[in-house]
Amino acid sequence: MSTQRYRVSHTSTYDYTGPISASHNEVRMTPLTEEGQTTLESRLRIRPLTWSNTYRDYFGTHVTALETSGFHEALELEAVSTVERYDVDRERPAATWDALRSGGCRDRCFEYLELRRHTELPEDVLAGFAQAAAGLDPTASVAAVVDAVRDHLDYEPGVTQATTLASEAWAEGKGVCQDFVHATLGGLRHLGIPARYVSGYLMPDADATIGQPVTSESHAWVEWFDGEGWVPVDPTNDRPVSLAHIAVARGRDYEDVAPFKGVYLGDQDADLTVTVMITRLS
To answer: What CA–CA distance (Å, rounded) separates 208 from 262?
Structure first.
């Protein structure tokens, strides 16, 4: 059985333009432990911190809720995890439209069939997805939607933001992994294929020297339901989800999986600096 072990260091620093009196935030930076992935160790350092609480959200993501009270001009979070990824041998029957359109499947996956604000696309775009998938089985339909998204969107950092909608990125014709995922989710859900957003990390250099940190960043991909289980696909890179992918959070779209979100009390602006380093340990 093939395995890979990594150390992931994810640092987020909010620098405010002046002192604020309090902040309340949620952090989703702890990799999941599930079939194919085990988080062997994880710690989260927060400075300054008044109190924190951890829980699992509706989608199974590890969440740390935290409060910092008292005046402060910066908030720093460092999440360090050791994660082991390993292959899982799994054989499933071919996905069928009858299984996906059954009442049981639609009830089970209701939230992953809904075209929410982030995943809505113009009617002509959705019609194009339907045309590309006409006559195909679900597995081939997924590939057709991914191909259509990749044909239309160019990967270009800096042109979209976390709040960008799929319709906006589509009109721009460019974006980052979040935009590729939102557009793919919109297309799959329009076809009646349940699909969900997965956030995490991607080791950019599979041949990295053991013990040598590599600069990375947060990544996102899609999982679609084939009637038996969830099948991952990476529309940004048009590649299988492999041992280089480390899952952290799942949800309907980015709003459910943001690594760091919250509110603060004060009229100051804030600059966010994010650094992700991944070290191959084996």
So the answer is: 35
